[in-house]
Amino acid sequence: MVKHYILWQLKDEFSAEEKETIKNNIKEGLEGLQGQIPGLVSIKVIKDGLLGSSNADLMLDSTFEDAEALAGYTVHPAHVAVATGAVRPNVKVRMVCDYEC
Question: Which pLDDT tens digit goes with each residue over 45-64?
Answer without folding.
Answer: 999 999 999 999 999 999 99
